[in-house]
Amino acid sequence: MNTVHRFVILRTLVRSGAFLVVAGSGSASAIQEPLWTIDGQERNECLGERIACFDDVDADQIADLLVGLPFCEVRIYSGRTGSLIDCLPREEDNDGFGQAVACCADLDGDQVQDFLVGAHFGGDGGRAYLYSGKTRALLDTFSGEALGEEFGFAVAGLGDADRDGLGDFAISGCYANFSGSVYVYSGRTHQLLRRIDGESNARCFGAAVDDAGDLDGDGTPDLLIGAPALGSPQGYAYVYSGFSGALIHRWVATDRYAWFGYDLSRIDDLDGDGVNECLIGAWGYSKAFLYSGSSGALIRAYEDYGNLGASVDGIGDMNLDGKEDFLISEPISNCDGSAPTGRAIVYSGASLERLYCFSGENAYDGFGVQVHGPGDLNGDRIADLVVSAPVWDISSEQHTAGRIYAYSGLHRPDMQALSPVRGRYDSTLPILVQGDHLATHPDLEIEFGGALATNVVIVDDHTVTCDAPVHATGPVDVVLATPVGSDSLEQGFTFTPAISMEGTPQPGSLVLLHFLVEPGDSIFAVLGVPPPVDIPTPPFDGALCIAPFLLGVLLPTAASDQVDLPLTLPPDASLSGLSFLLQALAGPSFAGDTRDASWTNCLEITIL
Fold first, then answer.
1. pTM of the predicted model as reported, rounded to 2 decimal places
2. Per residue in 536-558, pLDDT tens?
3. What DSSP assignment string belongs to 5-35?
4. Could you tell me which of 212, 213, 209 has the C-alpha nearest to residue 226?
């Protein structure tokens, strides 16, 4: 992914509700706890409007972040902690310094990636600066060819286009020659290798630029370029040969004013042909398109309503299924359809379906204006992600300071505890589920012994509430499942009370009844047979005849979770085939008041 103009979305967000109103919207959906956040410090700073990955500048074995604050400065932050490492001030006043930032190859040979900064209003036609990643010394300056071409609008590090053993780079002037141009430079000599001009009916050619990888099989990485056609009906995206500059693919927007090509990114091979794919955002119509890098055919189109496609990027294999996953942002939306706090959606590279959804904190923060896959930030060997909210407010006096969030990519749910762990089988029961990584997927289900819980609510990343289902009694496995993984507690919940029998029911035999209840329960057991058969011998000591064919007995208060009761069956052989029905009323100590008690399962005992 490469950075482009975000001002249209930002201004829309600042004007807020006129663009999107959600009637009756409530609180935001659950927010996953970030690894860290970085906050802007001044009004209108819009921190996070430009983000790029960076090499490990602080030598902690974790990639760092390059953040541009247009018209102000460029900052380098630690990828591990989010702390500030360095700050580069603008070269000129009002030059747009920081409009675009990108890392490139190690061009000065110091074993650290170098980086580019665009200043599209610098000088007469715009400028771009090449800096040493290790020392932050200025290595070179590049200037536009003509007044007003906005050279430096976008910058990108490339592979080795001239085959001299060193990576190269690209700088765009999106208004050069009216339609826009992209300039490819040698990383070794810094000399211009070629200029690629937009076609006459395109607009803002070069608004987004990225290294596409080798799509035509000539051994040289190719160039992915967007022309979102600002102010005109169509948008375009192109792939050009990195070696010859020949056109490989050309895609045209299907909707008017779609801003197709506003952002784009290469994605590692998903369809198994050994060639990368291309992901194109079209936020004007809230769409994103995934294309085959080899054939150019459309693989999948994504559509929603909240500026989907404002930012896109590959993220690495987050769910460890062997395919790169990818990010698509939607800055004016929410994972659960409530207040438009913005969201960043992770899609599976294998299934192409949604894996995770991350929501912002407040409505119209611009959460998702930039999304980025920086690699592993916390050392767990799982791809993580970075999301910006440039319109986030520190306070009512410091509007649009901006905030950057880093999130862990390890999102398989980890269910650790339930409260309570026992409950009555015959009615729903509120359950508190506790664990880690519980808030990253809205399609979360909880099963108790195979029966789905109801009213599942994700409170935060560590807490979920639900209602246990009506279920058969006894201990059951509890499973928390999402499309990217599951976790279970073996026999984690017990439905009580329950009755089971041990022994063979024969005339005159002794069987042992087990009452599975909650400690402290009182138990009133009831035994009956259907008329006209009478119960000839009370089966319980101290049994009370409560109806012609019904006997009841009050058992001792349960000291543990199980009460055992011996039952001597009538010795009369003529009763063979007779079925006894046994049930119990169990609950807190009751004396004529059974409102807090529940009936157990009904156990049928047939004399053999």
1. 0.71
2. 444 555 555 555 566 677 777 77
3. --HHHHHHHHTGGGS---TT--SPPP-PPPS
4. 209
Determine how many CB atoms are found less than 10 A away from the CB of residue 576: 12
Tokens 């009478």 belong to residue: 534
Q: What is the pLDDT, as a whole number, of residue 584? A: 78
Which is more confident, 79 or 535?
Answer: 79
**What are the DSSP E strand ranges found in 483-557?**
485-496, 498-502, 510-516, 522-528, 544-547, 550-555
Q: Beta-carbon neighbour count of residue 530 at 10 Å?
A: 10
Spatial separation of the C-alpha atoms in residues 275 and 269, rounded to whole Å: 5
Rounded-to-integer distance, Cα 559 and Cα 351, Å = 52
Nearest to 46 by CA among 79, 86, 3, 80: 3
Q: How confident is the model at residue 17 (pLDDT cuts 50, 70, 90)?
A: very low
431 in helix, strand or coil?
strand
Q: What percentage of the chain reaches a pLDDT higher than 70? A: 84
Q: Which of 541, 548, 535, 539 lies closest to 569 in space, CA to CA?
A: 539
Instruction: Tell me, rounded to whole angstroms, the distance of Cα 40 from its chain centroid.
Output: 24
By C-alpha distance, which of 91, 591, 54 is closest to 374?
Answer: 54
Would the pLDDT of 594 be above 60? no
- 290: tokens are 């995934």
3-state secondary structure of 212: strand
Residues 431, 397: contact at Cβ < 8 Å? Answer: no
Output the six-digit token pair for 393: 């407010």
- Read off the tokens for 550: 């019904």
β-pair partners for 511? 567
CA 527 to CA 63: how far, in whole Å? 71
Closest CA to 604 of 586, 583, 585, 581: 581
Q: Is 201 left (phi over 0), alpha (psi -120 to 50) or beta?
A: alpha
C-alpha torsion 373→376→380→386, nearest 10:
-50
- Work out the number of other CB atoms within 10 angstroms of the CB of residue 211: 25
Give the dihedral of Cα atoms 199, 202, 208, 213; nearest 10 deg: -40
71-77 long-range CB contacts below 8 Å, 24 or more apart?
Answer: 71/95, 71/96, 71/97, 71/98, 71/99, 72/45, 72/97, 72/98, 73/97, 73/98, 74/98, 74/101, 74/117, 76/136, 77/38, 77/404
SS (H, E, C) 135-191: CCCEEEEEECCCCCCCEEEEEEECCCCCCCCCCCEEEEECCCCCCCEEEEECCCCCC
What's the token pair of residue 175? 């208004």
Report how far apart, in Å, the C-alpha atoms of 163 and of each of 108, 187, 221 are: 17, 11, 10
DSSP string, 68-135: EETTTEEEEE-TTT--EEEEEE-SSTTS-EEEEEEE----SSSSS--EEEEETTSTTT-EEEEE-TTT
Max Cα distance, the chain (Å): 111
Q: Which helix (H) or strand (E) holds 313?
A: strand 312-316
Q: Is residue 511 within 8 Å of residue 505, measured between CB atoms? A: yes
pLDDT digits (tens, 9 = 90+) for 402-456: 999 999 886 778 899 998 887 767 778 889 999 887 876 777 899 999 999 999 9
